Every structure is written in C-alpha cells, then in structure tokens.
Automatic annotation (TrEMBL):
Pfam families: E1-E2_ATPase. Belongs to the cation transport ATPase (P-type) (TC 3.A.3) family. Type V subfamily. The chain crosses the membrane at residues 158-177. This is P-type ATPase A domain-containing protein. The keyword Protein biosynthesis does not apply. Residues 12-143 form the P-type ATPase A domain. Keywords: ATP-binding, Magnesium, Membrane, Metal-binding, Nucleotide-binding, Translocase, Transmembrane, Transmembrane helix. GO terms for molecular function: ATP binding; ATP hydrolysis activity; ATPase-coupled monoatomic cation transmembrane transporter activity; metal ion binding; P-type ion transporter activity. InterPro entries: ATPase_P-typ_cyto_dom_N (IPR023299), ATPase_P-typ_P_site (IPR018303), ATPase_P-typ_TM_dom_sf (IPR023298), ATPase_P-typ_transduc_dom_A_sf (IPR008250), ATPase_P-type_domA (IPR059000), HAD-like_sf (IPR036412), HAD_sf (IPR023214), P-type_TPase_V (IPR006544). GO terms for cellular component: endoplasmic reticulum membrane.
Amino acid sequence: MPCHRCLHPMCGKWEQMPGDALLPGDVISIGRPTSDTAAAGGDKVVPADCLLLAGSCIAEEAVLTGESTPQWKSNIGDQLLSDASARQRLSWKEHKHHILFGGTKILQHTGDKNARIRTPDGGCLAVVLRTGFETAQGRLMRTILFSTDRVTANNAEAGLFIAFLLLFALSAAYYVLVNGLQDPNRSRFKLILNCIMIVTSVVPPELPMELSLAVNASLLALAQKRVFCTEPFRIPFAGKVEVCCFDKTGTLTSDHLLLEGLVGDPEPRPPLPPASGTRGVADDAAAGAKKGGKRKERERRVTFRDEPEELGPDGDGAASKGLDEDELADPALVKDPRRFGPRATLVLAACHSLVQVAVGEGGAASGGIGSGASAATEVVGDPLEKAALESVGWTFAGGSGGADISLSPDKRVRATLLHRFHFSSHLKRMSAMLRVEDDTPGLSGPSPYTYGDTGAIAAAGGNTAPQHVVVAKGAPEVLKGLLAFVPANYDSEYKRYAAEGARVIALAHKALPVELDAATLRSMPREAVESGLNFVGFAVFQCPLKPESEPALSALAASSHQLVMITGDAPLTACYAAARVHIVTRPVLVLGHVEEDKGHAGGGTQGAKEAGTEDDSAFCWTSPDESIRVPFSRYWDDMLRVAFEYDLAVSGDALAHATAVGVASQLIPLCQVFARVSPDQKELVVNTLRAQGAITLMCGDGTNDVGGLKAAHVGVALLSSSESTKKGSKKGTGKKGDKDDKALAGSGDKATPATSPGGKRTAGQELLARARAANQPITPRMESMARMLDKMESSAKTGVDGDMPMLKPGDASMASPFTAKATSVLPCTDIIKQGRCTLVTTVQMFKILGLTCLSTAYSLSVLYLQGVKLSDTQATVTGMLSAAQFLFISQAKPLDSLSPVRPHPNIFNCYFFGSLLGQFGVHLALLMYFYRLALGSMPEGERLSSEAEFKPNLVNTVCYLVQAMVQMMTFAVNYAGHPFNTSIIENRNLYNSLRISAGFIFLVAAELIPELNSSFGMVPIPQHIKVRLVGLSFGAFLLTWHLERILRALFPAPVPPPKGYQCYVADMRRLGLTERAEDKKKM
C-alpha cells in the first residue's frame, strides 16, 4: 500500500500519520494535496478503503475500474436522511458512492464546516474500513499475482517426449552394453562411457533451446505488430485457442456514445422552417475564432450512423430543411436536439453527475465556479452524460467547490442543483432536484421547463419566479414503476430500439410545490422524490461498432473458433452487437428475471433477493421481442433442448442464480452472450470454460476485465489511447510537440529552459540544473542527454510516437500476458496466427528432433559396434547444416489469413507418432540396406573394429551420405507450410539451406571434386552403389513425403464446434436432437 501521510486525531489532537500505520476504525482527514504536498510528493492517494463521513470528493478510480471518468463521492450522511436507509447494513456495492477506495486519487474535495468533527486542514472526514490486501486494490493485486501459474518451456509435454526418446536411448545403450560385455578384451571403462554417451546424445539437450528459438522469433514478430508479451511461452497456447471471449464496450464497440434522438416525447417542437435553420443564440454565444471549434462540436446532430453529422457554419445543414430521411422513415424518432421538448431537454442537460475539474497540476484545489477565471477547467464524467449535454447545446459549470449550474444555449434558462441522488448500479436510476430560473423574454406563466408547454399555456398570471423540479433518468424497466402514468406503447417503444443495439434511457420529470424551501427539499427521502414522475421520452444512444470488429470476428468464426461476449451492458444491446459480429447467428433467447420488466414499483430501494433463494420459475428464457417465452429449468436435458434451438444470452442475475443452485458449470458452455455481469462473473465464465477443457482467449480493455484476462490461457489487453491524447491529436498538438522538441531542456546558459505543465522541471532540466549548481560547464553532449531525457518523459506521458499511451494505473495490461497497442480486436487475429505458426513449428521441431535422435541411437549402437564412424570434418559440417536449418525453420512466418484447418494441439496423437515411427522405419531401412550393400562391396581387410580409430572406407563413406540425405529429407518432409505458415519455398533461408545441402551431397556423391572428398575422409564409390543411392534416396523422400501427407489427412486435428451445445453429441443422440438436426439439413 502507498505510504502517504494523512491527518489523524490522537489524544484529542490532529497529527500527521503515515498511511501504512492506519487501522480499521481510525478517523482521518483526507483531501486533494495542497501546494506544499504537491511540490513534495505529487498527487494524494487514498491509503485505505474509507467511508466518507463529512464533505464530498471527486476521485479518479482508474486504478481499480480502468475507467478514466472521475467519480463523485458524497458523505454517508446523505444516505442516512431516511429511516429506512439508516437501518441498512453497509454494502460495498450499494454504497460505493460514499466509499473512497485505497489507491485511488483525489482530484477535488470540499470539507464540511458544519460537521460535528471539524478537520483542521479543511479536508474530508472519513473512517478507515479496510487496509492492506483486504482493500479493493489489495484484492486486485492478489488477483494479478496469484490467479494463474506462469508457463515455461519445461512443460509436461516436453518431459513425456524426452521420456519416450529415453526408452530408445536405454535400449541402444543396453544393446551396446550386452555386446561389449561379450568381448573379454574390451575396456569396461570405455564401454560404460560409450553407453553414457548414447543416452546423452539421444536425449536432445538442445530441445529447450530449439523451442525457445521458435518462441523468440514469434515474440519479435508480434512486437513488430505492436503486440507485447510478458509470458512468451503462452504464444503456442494461442494456436490452440478454441473459445474466444470478448468484452463489448471499448473492445468491440467504441467507448464514445452518440445521441441518436428522442422517442416518445409528449411535447416535441415542430420542425424548423427551411429559412430559419440557425441556432441564433447558440451561434452568438459561440462566436469568435477561439471558440469556433467548440461551437461546431456543440452543433453536431447525431444521426443513425457511426459518426455524427455536422451542421454548416450558418446552421443550414440537413436539419434546417425539416425532417431528414431517417426521421421520415421513423417518425417516432426526433433526431434534432432543437426539436426536443423543454422538459426532456432539461433532464438531458441537468440530470447528471458531471463535474468540473482543474486541468493540470496548477489548477485550483476545488473546481467550483469561484475557482478563479485563470484556472483551466474541464467537464468530466460519464461519456453518456457528456454526449447528452453536448447534443442539447447546454453548458455546465460546477464542481465540489460551488453550486452545479446548467445553462441553456442562450443563457436565459438556469438550472441550479439542490440535491442529487446518485446513480446506483443496483437501483439502475438517478435523480436530481433543481431550481429552474427562466428569463426568456415574453414568457407568460410558468416556465415550460417546469410544467411543460401545455402547462405554461394553461397557467394564469405571470409567475416567473424560480420553480423547483425533479429530473430523473434510468433503465426503462426500472423507471416504469415510478411513473404516475405509463404510456400504452412504453414497452414496445424502448424494446424496439434496444433490440437494434441502442442504449435506451428513460427520462422523467416532476414539478415540486413552490412553497418548499431548499432545506426541506434536501431532507426529502428518495422514495418520495422519485414517485409520481411524468414520462418525457426515451433518449436513444448508440455505441458504434468499431470498423475492425466485424472482419476480425468473422475471420475467427471462419477459422473454427467459438465466439463468446462477456459484457456489463444490457442484454438486448449486447445481443444486437453480438449478432453484428457473428457471435449470435440464430434466434436468441435471453435468460432473465420475470419481474425485470415491472421495475421497482413505488420507488423502493430494497435490494434484490439473495441469489439462490428464488425458484426457477422466477427466471425465464425470453426473445428480444418477447414473442417467445420458455420457462427456465435447471435440469440438463431441458437446458440442452433450448440451446439446440436458439442462441442463448444470460444476464448477471440469472447467472448468479445458476451459480447458487449449482448449474452454472452446465449453463455457461451453452451460452454465447453474458450481459450485465460483474468482474467476478467474468472470471467465473472463463474459469468454467477452462474447466470444461477449452483453451480460452479473453480480450478486454479495462481493469474490470483483469479477472477474466488472468483466468484465460491467452489474455489480450487493448491499450487504447487516452482521451487527452485523442483531443491533442484533433487540435494539432503535433506542431506544439515540434516546438517543444526544438526548445532545449537548457541550451547552455543563454537559453531559458521551458518548464512542464504546473511549473515543474523536467528530467532534462533537473540534469542541467544540477550541473550548473556544481559549476560544471554545459557541454553539447550534456544538452543532448537532457533532450533525450525530456523526450523519454514526454513519451511516458503522452505515448510512444505520440499516438498511444504508455502503461498507466487501471490498464488491463497490468495482469494480461499479452498487451496490444491498438484500439481494436485485430491484434487477436495476429496473436492466433502467430500462435498457430509457433505451435506448428514446435510440433515439427519435436518430430525432427525425434527422428534425428532415433537415427543417432541406431548409429551409436548398431553401426558403432560394426565400426562405422564419422570423421571430425563430416560431423562438423553435418552439425552446422543441422543448426542452420533448425534456426531457419523457427523463422517461418504465418499466413495473412486464418484457416479453418487447425493444427494439432499436442504431440501425443496418432498422426504425430504414426509419422514419426513411419519415417524412422523408412530411414532405418534405407540405412541398413546401404550399410549391407557397402559392406558386401568392401574388402574384408578394410573393416574396422569398434575400438579402432576412424579410417576412410566404403562403409563409412556410404553411411555418411545416407545419414546426410536422411537429415535433409527430414527437414524438407516435416516442414508444415500452408495453411499455417509460409511454404518451404517462401521461407527463403530454409529453402536455400536445403538447396545447399542437396548440392553438397550431389557434389561429393558424384565425386566432381576428388580433393574435396579426400578432405572429408571419403573414398570413391562404385557406380552401381551411386545409382542405387540416388534412386532409393529419392524414392525414400517421396515415400516419407506422401506418408506425412496421408497421415495428416487421415488424422486431422479436432475442430471444436461453433456452438457449445454441439460438444455434447452423446446427450443429443439420447434426446433425439441429432436426428432432428439431420432432418433440418435435408429440408
């Protein structure tokens, strides 16, 4: 844990205490660092999980959630205003908006001067709940450190293969030992030494090195594609992947949202006339060259496309011509924000948790309105809320230091926040109480933002005093139970857009009595505030699919991979996105709670029932349009029948129920989409798939994916560019960067060194400052070093090459073995391609080493006893060619496309051992035949004993040539090539080395240069042996080549089915589902 200091009251006196000395129950004062602490140590990091008792904070929780959006933290006192809430137990999930988590950073804070215990430094009062590894950050670190074992080259497969070769080595050594003991004159010491040499030569000591060659070559190839791996020996696992799991938001889809329009608005404004398409006041407010870019951003109209459509500079875009094509095709969808009803506009503009924070370290400590005009500020928060605010053209100013105020484009409507009920993932809604002041000229009666257009017309008098209203938004099924009146087409409207992949948010509004003051409003319980609401429409947001997602997943589906989506998004939205990327290919059923559509009637905050306490009848399988409903049953046969007919999606609640009743291990392999799941459930899904024997890949981009990334065999983290980097690239920061590079950290004593944002010195400036303080001369070499340090520091903050960030807290790459420096899932295909190439190379290396070792065992045993030996030159040349070919075979490159044919996942299969033993039989027969042929053609006096020194003779010469040919054909025949990697001709280095080997063998066999043969210790070969040597060697090559291809065809690698239910063939036959599938194919 970080050892940061905080104030702690001891003996009635506040004292500084290090963070690692805190204990649960300690009361502390914590907040954003002051200028002194910022200069000394930088940012304030929360030292433990703390419950906020007084004050409010804005905290950045990227280290835990991976989301860069700051979170508003209010004190628990707001939650205890109602008696029902006061009796609740503290829940880490439900009350997380009151908890500061250890390791997070405080951006802003506001102390409570009226608190019972006042803090001396104006910080927030908090009580310590958990410390050390019991905190949220500590549990995350445990997951990173201990969830899975590291993979090395010393695996069980290599050990078993060595044991297999050891049997042949021991057999050969035993053969030599038995025959040697029969000779009483033979030295027993040399005999034992020869047996040991056989064992050590047959069992290849270079096996780990050869495997490392293939893995390191793949490691370099992936690095060139901006994919980095911390566990290199997981690369072959990528070639075995059967199930590919993907997160949705930020991985398959973009992480920015677009407001498509409003549906069900009871008071839409009429289309603008063609002549008046301008946003007059908005244009006036945005006038000026400096703000031109911001004005264009605010005038963007969001369409049903991947990118928003931008109005012309004079507002005479498509919207000014009335309804566009999409609105004519779908009249229910109002796409122009200028046509939204006033109450719906107010909900979109003021019902949010956005905050205004100071940008950079030099900003004010609190980002309120009164923070000072000189401080640069930025509105941060939920991307959905930012998209809504920007689309309606309103502006926001506020933070923890002052009131939150939303202003209309003409600045005449002012909505001030009185009290906010934060969004809860459990309640799935949020609300806010506002004071609305409308200074619109000519307004008679109440503002339409408080009572609506109809209410303004019907009201008598000129009451333009500030009005109090409630604005609320949330999941449609939840807000339905809080409405005073539910439209007849409520369900059909939002489900239609949700089924098309949109994110639908219900909007509601209610006017409060004028006589209530602000204090009374703040004391109202949430149940009373969020009851009797008026429905004002559905906001339809779109999260565009990344253009690379569909081609990448299409390639994975076509290459025999099962695809799964694991997301925290809504089930209908997830199913639509899954259908667009080939995860869902049949009609889909969603397993959810039957009461989900009814919402929380009465607006109660009671929690859902404990998982496992409800009957199976509380859950059902439902189609997106609700035309099909199938009751859920925990029995295996019933689940398999449903999976046979439909693609399946499961919500987080249903998955929790299945886990509680013990059927999650049966349900998870049958499903394609997991929606509304927590990070723990993501890890559960991946672990269950692993337990079923599937090799899994998980791809995600946030810390909430860490559990799944660590649990998968192949975890791929996407390292996306930060929001600031994106904005900088749009604003043309490249020019600024060029100027910064030209500005030296210190150009001698004449140049004035520039400082980094916030007035701090850079690393290069510090280097030059220390040199000047020591009265050292500033040399050009020192200036060059300072520039290099500044460039490295700049790259660490903004990204390598200026387009991608370096690793930062909250990135999923903290725990993932693979990190892709990309924003799309295309690197997953590159990893699998390289994994298949590495796996094939590894398998063929096992086979080549096996054949070489078996031939060595025969040569060192049988042939050695017969006096067959190699000269030093022959052994050196053979070893050099073999080493070069092993090196070149490891440099094979994958093909550009993935093949539906899969490589064998391991070496223990009929194909591998059939090929290994078959080729060895051919090689052995060839070697034995030519040994006997040469022995019969050689005079008796030239024979050598096993103890004699090497002397050139016909047997040695012929056996050497045969062994060289066997080595060459072993590499040529067993090179895999297509469809996994480049062919042997495309692998130019290996191809040329084999050509050199063939040319050398032909040269010495034909005796074209007699002096060369003599230098190698070779004698002339009779003509009839030459002819047979060439013919039979070519015949052996053809035989082994065809044997290898025939065995590949007879024993292909198993192909996993595209759907999980297809793995259970025996159960399908028992239930008669196989026959039904065949009948469907015939029809």
